[in-house]
Amino acid sequence: MAQATAPEVIVETEGKIGIVTLNRPQSLNALSIAVVDAVIEALGGFDRDPKINAMVLAGLPKSFAAGADIGEMKGVTGAAGAEKQLARHLSHWDKIGRLKKPIVAAVSGYALGGGCELAMACDMIVASETAVFGQPEVLIGVMAGAGGTQRLTKVVGKSLSMEMNLTGRRLTAREALSFGLVNRVVPVESFLSEAKKLAHSIAAQPPLAVQAAKASVLAAVDSKLSEGLVFERQSFFRLFETQDQKEGMKAFFEKRKPVWSGN
Ligand code: CAA
Protein backbone atom coordinates (compact mmCIF):
# COMPACT_ATOMS: atom_id res chain seq x y z
CA MET A 1 0.00 0.00 0.00
CA ALA A 2 1.35 3.45 -0.88
CA GLN A 3 2.32 5.48 2.17
CA ALA A 4 1.23 9.09 2.41
CA THR A 5 4.33 11.30 2.54
CA ALA A 6 4.42 14.12 5.08
CA PRO A 7 4.54 17.58 3.51
CA GLU A 8 7.96 19.22 3.55
CA VAL A 9 6.46 22.46 4.84
CA ILE A 10 3.64 22.41 7.41
CA VAL A 11 1.38 25.45 7.66
CA GLU A 12 -0.85 26.02 10.69
CA THR A 13 -2.50 28.80 12.67
CA GLU A 14 -2.96 29.23 16.42
CA GLY A 15 -5.10 32.21 17.35
CA LYS A 16 -3.57 35.29 15.73
CA ILE A 17 -0.27 33.63 14.81
CA GLY A 18 0.69 31.70 11.69
CA ILE A 19 3.21 28.87 12.04
CA VAL A 20 5.33 27.51 9.19
CA THR A 21 7.41 24.42 9.97
CA LEU A 22 10.20 23.02 7.78
CA ASN A 23 9.83 19.26 7.68
CA ARG A 24 12.48 17.59 5.55
CA PRO A 25 14.23 15.49 8.20
CA GLN A 26 16.01 13.14 5.79
CA SER A 27 18.25 16.01 4.63
CA LEU A 28 18.31 17.98 7.90
CA ASN A 29 15.84 20.47 6.38
CA ALA A 30 18.07 21.40 3.42
CA LEU A 31 16.42 24.34 1.72
CA SER A 32 15.51 23.09 -1.74
CA ILE A 33 13.85 25.38 -4.28
CA ALA A 34 10.50 23.67 -3.64
CA VAL A 35 10.79 24.07 0.14
CA VAL A 36 11.69 27.75 0.01
CA ASP A 37 8.94 28.39 -2.57
CA ALA A 38 6.44 26.83 -0.14
CA VAL A 39 7.82 28.83 2.80
CA ILE A 40 7.54 32.15 0.98
CA GLU A 41 4.04 31.31 -0.22
CA ALA A 42 2.90 30.45 3.33
CA LEU A 43 4.56 33.42 5.03
CA GLY A 44 3.34 35.78 2.28
CA GLY A 45 -0.18 34.41 2.74
CA PHE A 46 -0.05 35.07 6.48
CA ASP A 47 1.38 38.53 5.83
CA ARG A 48 -1.72 39.34 3.75
CA ASP A 49 -4.22 37.65 6.12
CA PRO A 50 -5.93 40.24 8.35
CA LYS A 51 -6.61 37.56 11.01
CA ILE A 52 -2.87 36.96 11.53
CA ASN A 53 -0.67 39.43 13.44
CA ALA A 54 2.64 37.57 13.83
CA MET A 55 4.38 34.45 12.50
CA VAL A 56 6.70 31.68 13.62
CA LEU A 57 9.12 29.98 11.22
CA ALA A 58 10.21 26.73 12.84
CA GLY A 59 12.56 23.89 12.10
CA LEU A 60 12.71 20.43 13.63
CA PRO A 61 14.43 19.68 16.97
CA LYS A 62 17.49 18.19 15.21
CA SER A 63 17.84 20.83 12.53
CA PHE A 64 16.37 24.23 11.70
CA ALA A 65 17.99 24.02 8.26
CA ALA A 66 21.43 22.75 7.19
CA GLY A 67 21.64 25.24 4.32
CA ALA A 68 20.58 25.52 0.73
CA ASP A 69 20.24 22.13 -0.94
CA ILE A 70 23.77 21.32 -2.10
CA GLY A 71 22.39 18.66 -4.44
CA GLU A 72 20.59 21.36 -6.42
CA MET A 73 23.72 23.51 -6.67
CA LYS A 74 26.48 21.05 -7.40
CA GLY A 75 25.84 20.88 -11.15
CA VAL A 76 25.62 24.65 -11.60
CA THR A 77 28.47 26.12 -13.66
CA GLY A 78 29.52 29.71 -14.39
CA ALA A 79 28.36 33.00 -12.87
CA ALA A 80 25.66 33.42 -15.52
CA GLY A 81 24.46 29.87 -14.91
CA ALA A 82 24.38 30.42 -11.16
CA GLU A 83 22.43 33.64 -11.59
CA LYS A 84 19.95 31.99 -13.95
CA GLN A 85 19.34 29.00 -11.70
CA LEU A 86 19.68 30.50 -8.24
CA ALA A 87 18.83 34.23 -8.32
CA ARG A 88 15.08 33.71 -7.91
CA HIS A 89 15.65 31.14 -5.14
CA LEU A 90 17.97 33.40 -3.17
CA SER A 91 15.69 36.43 -3.60
CA HIS A 92 13.17 34.68 -1.33
CA TRP A 93 15.42 35.28 1.71
CA ASP A 94 15.20 39.02 0.96
CA LYS A 95 11.43 38.79 0.48
CA ILE A 96 11.08 37.19 3.91
CA GLY A 97 13.11 40.08 5.33
CA ARG A 98 10.65 42.53 3.75
CA LEU A 99 7.36 41.05 5.04
CA LYS A 100 5.30 43.52 7.09
CA LYS A 101 4.41 41.29 10.04
CA PRO A 102 6.99 40.12 12.58
CA ILE A 103 8.45 36.64 12.27
CA VAL A 104 10.01 34.68 15.13
CA ALA A 105 12.43 31.93 14.06
CA ALA A 106 12.28 28.82 16.26
CA VAL A 107 15.75 27.32 15.90
CA SER A 108 17.01 24.01 17.25
CA GLY A 109 20.00 22.03 15.96
CA TYR A 110 21.68 23.15 12.75
CA ALA A 111 21.18 26.67 11.41
CA LEU A 112 23.92 26.60 8.80
CA GLY A 113 24.50 28.47 5.56
CA GLY A 114 21.11 29.33 4.07
CA GLY A 115 19.55 28.07 7.33
CA CYS A 116 21.43 30.64 9.41
CA GLU A 117 20.55 33.23 6.77
CA LEU A 118 16.89 32.22 6.94
CA ALA A 119 16.82 32.62 10.73
CA MET A 120 18.52 36.01 10.39
CA ALA A 121 15.98 37.13 7.75
CA CYS A 122 13.34 36.71 10.48
CA ASP A 123 12.95 39.43 13.13
CA MET A 124 13.75 37.49 16.29
CA ILE A 125 15.29 34.12 17.09
CA VAL A 126 14.37 31.75 19.90
CA ALA A 127 17.11 29.11 20.08
CA SER A 128 17.23 25.76 21.80
CA GLU A 129 20.31 24.77 23.79
CA THR A 130 21.38 22.55 20.88
CA ALA A 131 21.23 25.26 18.23
CA VAL A 132 24.39 25.93 16.20
CA PHE A 133 24.78 28.86 13.83
CA GLY A 134 27.31 29.11 11.05
CA GLN A 135 28.18 30.11 7.50
CA PRO A 136 30.16 27.06 6.34
CA GLU A 137 29.84 27.72 2.59
CA VAL A 138 33.59 28.33 2.32
CA LEU A 139 34.10 24.66 3.27
CA ILE A 140 32.32 23.63 0.06
CA GLY A 141 34.13 26.10 -2.17
CA VAL A 142 31.67 28.99 -2.21
CA MET A 143 30.50 31.74 0.15
CA ALA A 144 27.23 32.86 1.70
CA GLY A 145 24.74 34.03 -0.93
CA ALA A 146 21.57 34.90 1.01
CA GLY A 147 22.71 37.55 3.47
CA GLY A 148 25.31 35.68 5.54
CA THR A 149 28.09 38.22 5.00
CA GLN A 150 25.69 41.16 5.46
CA ARG A 151 23.10 40.44 8.16
CA LEU A 152 25.55 38.46 10.29
CA THR A 153 28.15 41.26 10.16
CA LYS A 154 25.59 43.86 11.21
CA VAL A 155 24.69 41.75 14.26
CA VAL A 156 27.95 40.19 15.47
CA GLY A 157 30.46 42.67 14.04
CA LYS A 158 33.25 42.42 11.49
CA SER A 159 35.83 40.27 13.31
CA LEU A 160 33.54 37.40 14.27
CA SER A 161 31.66 37.52 10.97
CA MET A 162 35.00 37.28 9.14
CA GLU A 163 35.99 34.25 11.19
CA MET A 164 32.65 32.53 10.64
CA ASN A 165 32.52 33.28 6.91
CA LEU A 166 36.22 32.60 6.26
CA THR A 167 36.73 29.46 8.37
CA GLY A 168 33.24 28.05 8.84
CA ARG A 169 33.44 28.53 12.62
CA ARG A 170 30.10 27.74 14.23
CA LEU A 171 28.51 29.45 17.24
CA THR A 172 26.78 27.55 20.01
CA ALA A 173 23.40 28.83 21.18
CA ARG A 174 25.02 30.41 24.27
CA GLU A 175 27.65 32.16 22.12
CA ALA A 176 24.92 33.35 19.74
CA LEU A 177 23.07 34.80 22.75
CA SER A 178 26.18 36.57 24.00
CA PHE A 179 26.71 38.17 20.55
CA GLY A 180 23.08 39.30 20.27
CA LEU A 181 22.21 36.96 17.41
CA VAL A 182 19.35 35.30 19.33
CA ASN A 183 16.76 36.59 21.77
CA ARG A 184 16.86 33.69 24.21
CA VAL A 185 18.09 30.14 24.71
CA VAL A 186 15.65 27.58 26.04
CA PRO A 187 15.60 23.80 26.58
CA VAL A 188 15.12 21.83 23.37
CA GLU A 189 11.72 20.56 24.57
CA SER A 190 10.33 24.09 24.66
CA PHE A 191 11.95 25.95 21.76
CA LEU A 192 8.75 25.87 19.71
CA SER A 193 6.40 26.73 22.56
CA GLU A 194 8.67 29.63 23.63
CA ALA A 195 8.79 30.95 20.06
CA LYS A 196 4.99 30.73 19.85
CA LYS A 197 4.70 32.49 23.22
CA LEU A 198 6.82 35.37 21.94
CA ALA A 199 4.77 35.55 18.72
CA HIS A 200 1.51 35.53 20.73
CA SER A 201 2.78 38.37 22.91
CA ILE A 202 3.43 40.41 19.74
CA ALA A 203 0.13 39.37 18.15
CA ALA A 204 -1.74 40.76 21.19
CA GLN A 205 -0.47 44.29 20.43
CA PRO A 206 -2.08 46.79 18.02
CA PRO A 207 -0.99 45.43 14.62
CA LEU A 208 -0.44 48.73 12.82
CA ALA A 209 1.81 50.01 15.61
CA VAL A 210 3.70 46.68 15.60
CA GLN A 211 4.22 46.80 11.83
CA ALA A 212 5.34 50.43 11.94
CA ALA A 213 7.79 49.67 14.75
CA LYS A 214 9.16 46.64 12.86
CA ALA A 215 9.71 48.73 9.71
CA SER A 216 11.37 51.42 11.77
CA VAL A 217 13.76 49.00 13.51
CA LEU A 218 14.68 47.57 10.10
CA ALA A 219 15.31 51.13 8.87
CA ALA A 220 17.87 51.44 11.68
CA VAL A 221 19.69 48.39 10.32
CA ASP A 222 19.45 49.43 6.68
CA SER A 223 20.07 53.18 6.75
CA LYS A 224 22.26 55.90 8.20
CA LEU A 225 21.15 57.18 11.64
CA SER A 226 19.90 60.49 10.23
CA GLU A 227 17.73 58.71 7.62
CA GLY A 228 16.50 56.20 10.22
CA LEU A 229 15.44 58.97 12.57
CA VAL A 230 13.42 60.68 9.81
CA PHE A 231 11.74 57.35 8.96
CA GLU A 232 10.95 56.74 12.65
CA ARG A 233 9.44 60.22 13.12
CA GLN A 234 7.21 59.85 10.02
CA SER A 235 6.03 56.39 11.14
CA PHE A 236 5.31 57.71 14.63
CA PHE A 237 3.22 60.58 13.24
CA ARG A 238 1.26 58.24 10.93
CA LEU A 239 0.12 56.12 13.89
CA PHE A 240 -1.90 59.13 15.11
CA GLU A 241 -4.23 58.43 12.16
CA THR A 242 -5.23 55.07 13.70
CA GLN A 243 -8.16 54.16 15.93
CA ASP A 244 -5.81 52.01 18.03
CA GLN A 245 -3.87 55.14 19.03
CA LYS A 246 -7.13 56.73 20.25
CA GLU A 247 -8.15 53.52 22.01
CA GLY A 248 -4.72 52.91 23.59
CA MET A 249 -4.44 56.37 25.09
CA LYS A 250 -8.11 56.47 26.17
CA ALA A 251 -7.80 53.05 27.87
CA PHE A 252 -4.67 54.25 29.69
CA PHE A 253 -6.63 57.01 31.43
CA GLU A 254 -9.68 54.80 31.98
CA LYS A 255 -7.32 52.31 33.70
CA ARG A 256 -8.48 49.37 31.58
CA LYS A 257 -6.92 47.06 28.99
CA PRO A 258 -7.21 48.45 25.45
CA VAL A 259 -9.25 46.57 22.85
CA TRP A 260 -7.34 46.67 19.57
CA SER A 261 -9.32 46.90 16.33
CA GLY A 262 -6.34 46.81 13.97
CA ASN A 263 -7.46 50.07 12.40
N1 CAA B 1 22.01 20.01 1.21
C1 CAA B 1 21.63 18.77 0.84
N2 CAA B 1 21.67 17.73 1.68
C2 CAA B 1 22.13 17.92 2.93
C3 CAA B 1 22.54 19.18 3.37
C4 CAA B 1 22.46 20.27 2.45
N3 CAA B 1 22.80 21.52 2.80
N4 CAA B 1 22.94 19.08 4.65
C5 CAA B 1 22.77 17.79 5.00
N5 CAA B 1 22.29 17.09 3.95
C6 CAA B 1 21.98 15.66 3.91
C7 CAA B 1 23.23 14.81 3.82
O1 CAA B 1 23.67 14.70 2.48
C8 CAA B 1 22.73 13.50 4.39
O2 CAA B 1 22.01 12.83 3.41
P1 CAA B 1 22.16 11.20 3.25
O3 CAA B 1 21.64 10.65 4.56
O4 CAA B 1 21.31 10.89 2.08
O5 CAA B 1 23.63 10.94 3.07
C9 CAA B 1 21.75 13.93 5.46
O6 CAA B 1 21.38 15.27 5.14
C10 CAA B 1 22.35 13.93 6.85
O7 CAA B 1 23.54 14.68 6.79
P2 CAA B 1 24.95 14.14 7.38
O8 CAA B 1 25.06 12.67 7.20
O9 CAA B 1 26.04 14.98 6.78
O10 CAA B 1 24.75 14.48 8.95
P3 CAA B 1 25.84 14.85 10.02
O11 CAA B 1 25.12 14.85 11.32
O12 CAA B 1 27.04 13.98 9.88
O13 CAA B 1 26.32 16.34 9.67
C11 CAA B 1 25.97 18.66 9.04
C12 CAA B 1 25.39 17.39 9.75
C13 CAA B 1 27.18 19.17 9.80
C14 CAA B 1 24.87 19.70 9.03
C15 CAA B 1 26.39 18.28 7.60
O14 CAA B 1 25.31 17.61 6.96
C16 CAA B 1 26.76 19.47 6.74
O15 CAA B 1 27.85 19.96 6.85
N6 CAA B 1 25.81 19.89 5.86
C17 CAA B 1 26.08 20.95 4.91
C18 CAA B 1 26.12 22.30 5.58
C19 CAA B 1 26.41 23.37 4.56
O16 CAA B 1 27.47 23.37 3.93
N7 CAA B 1 25.49 24.31 4.37
C20 CAA B 1 25.64 25.39 3.42
C21 CAA B 1 25.00 25.01 2.11
S1 CAA B 1 25.32 26.22 0.84
C22 CAA B 1 24.29 27.53 1.19
O17 CAA B 1 23.50 27.48 2.10
C23 CAA B 1 24.43 28.74 0.29
C24 CAA B 1 23.65 29.94 0.72
O18 CAA B 1 24.19 30.87 1.26
C25 CAA B 1 22.22 30.03 0.44
The ligands bound in this entry are: acetoacetyl-coenzyme A
Q: Kindly name the structural category.
A: alpha/beta
SSE order, one letter for each helix or strand: EEHEEHHEEHEEHHEHEHHHH
- Architecture, CATH level 2? Alpha-Beta Complex
| Count of β-strands | 10
Sketch the major β-sheet: 6 strands, mixed
Distance between the termini: 52 Å
| β-strand amount | 15-25%
Order of strands in the sheet with most strands: 1-2-3-5-7-10
Shape annotation? globular
| Average predicted confidence as pLDDT | 95
Summarize the structure.
The chain has 263 residues and is an alpha/beta fold. The protein has helices at 33-48, 70-73, 79-97, 114-121, 151-156, 158-167, 173-178, 191-203, 207-222, 225-238, 243-253; strands spanning 9-14, 17-22, 54-58, 63-65, 103-107, 110-112, 124-128, 132-134, 170-172, 184-186. Acetoacetyl-coenzyme A is lined by residues 27-28, 30, 66-71, 110, 112-114, 117, 136-137, 140, 144-146, 148.
What are the SSEs and their pairings?
Elements (H helix, E strand, L loop, with lengths): L8 E6 L2 E6 L10 H16 L5 E5 L4 E3 L4 H4 L5 H19 L5 E5 L2 E3 L1 H8 L2 E5 L3 E3 L16 H6 L1 H10 L2 E3 H6 L5 E3 L4 H13 L3 H16 L2 H14 L4 H11 L10
Helix pairs in contact: 1-3, 3-4, 9-10
Bound molecules: acetoacetyl-coenzyme A (CAA).
Structure, described:
The structure is a single chain. The chain is built from 11 helices and 10 strands. It has 263 residues and is an alpha/beta fold. It has a single domain (3-191, 198-254), classed as 2-enoyl-CoA Hydratase, Chain A, domain 1 (Alpha-Beta Complex). Strands 1-2-3-5-7-10 form a 6-stranded mixed beta sheet, sandwiched between helices. It has a 4-stranded mixed beta sheet with strand order 4-6-8-9. A hairpin with a 2-residue loop joins strand 1 (9-14) and strand 2. Helix 3 packs parallel to helix 4 (114-121) and helix 9 (207-222) runs antiparallel to helix 10. The longest helix has 19 residues, at 79-97. The relative contact order is 0.12. The model has no long low-confidence stretch (mean pLDDT 95). The structure holds acetoacetyl-coenzyme A. Residues 27-28, 30, 66-71, 110, 112-114, 117, 136-137, 140, 144-146, 148 line the site of acetoacetyl-coenzyme A (CAA).
